[in-house]
Design brief:
Layout: H1 3-65, H2 76-86, E1 92-96, E2 102-106, H3 113-125, E3 130-134, E4 138-146, E5 152-161, H4 163-198, H5 200-210, H6 213-220, H7 222-258
Antiparallel strand pairs: 1-2, 1-5, 3-4, 4-5
Helix pairs in contact: 1-2, 1-4, 5-7
């Protein structure tokens, strides 16, 4: 096997290793971005739904200041029905009491029992006036209602299917994936001449070690000749130092034997 085939294998192994590391980093970054995109889209959707929840809260607080309870407010059912029809992404609007009992609702979709306890703990037990709960297929947005004495008198809960923003998240993820593929291709093309340039000195050293003689000098060029000459000079200096050291040891041994006890 020639020196070039051996060194070509070294080039290939280095390039493959670097390309695999870059590909792994881009894949991990892409997966993290996918998780972040879902979270960001859920947050953006919840913030948009809070606008509708705030409008309902304003109407309830205004009626409470006049001394009306939530279930006594005229026109509140029409308000939540109009709000739900105006935004097709809202599957249900629910107004609950401080203990989680339903008071008014709009929309045909009910909150599943598997989500109800977790949702009520999040809305009333988190200590935040605005809450968000993503359970997978559904996103819940809650907003606490306070009376004139700043006591909690209930909450507005809006339900939306996550399909409404997962589709947008997937489109964005596909565009980011295409961008990563382009970046990966550009880096792979740019790294080949960089590796060859960085390993040029190693290649010349390998040539100097693998080849010898005048025929080798004609094949490998002046740089390899200089390296080979430097190696030869170093070997000669090492041999001379070793011979001198052995001579010193021999003289020391002879002197020790000639010294009387």
């Amino acid at each position: 096997m020639s020196w070039w085939s051996v060194f070509r294998d070294i080039y290939a192994k280095v390039l493959v290793s670097i390309v695999l590391v870059i590909a792994g980093m881009l894949v991990l970054q892409s997966l993290l971005n996918n998780l972040k995109l879902r979270s960001l889209m859920a947050e953006a959707t919840s913030s948009r739904l809070q606008i509708s929840a705030a409008a309902i809260e304003t109407a309830i607080v205004r009626a409470d200041s006049l001394g009306f309870a939530i279930d006594e407010m005229s026109g509140l059912q029409d308000l939540i029905d109009r709000t739900q029809r105006r935004d097709p992404s809202i599957a249900q609007i629910l107004i609950v009491s401080p203990i989680g009992a339903p008071i008014l609702s709009s929309g045909s979709q009910e909150i599943p029992h598997s989500d109800r306890d977790q949702l009520m703990r999040r809305v009333f037990g988190s200590g935040d006036s605005v809450t968000r709960l993503d359970v997978g297929p559904r996103l819940y947005t809650g907003r606490l209602l306070y009376d004139s004495s700043n006591a909690v008198m209930g909450a507005v809960i809006l339900t939306t299917p996550t399909e409404s923003f997962i589709y947008q998240s997937r489109l964005t993820f596909h565009r980011m994936t295409n961008a990563y593929l382009i970046i990966f291709g550009m880096i792979s093309v740019m790294i080949i001449p960089f590796i060859i340039l960085q390993f040029s000195s190693v290649r010349h050293a390998y040539q100097a070690l693998a080849l010898s003689g005048e025929a080798a000098s004609a094949q490998v060029g002046p740089e390899a000749d200089m390296l080979r000459e430097a190696i030869a000079e170093g070997d000669a200096a090492f041999a001379a130092a070793e011979a001198e050291f052995e001579a010193l040891l021999t003289e020391g041994g002879s002197a020790a034997r000639g010294t009387p006890a």
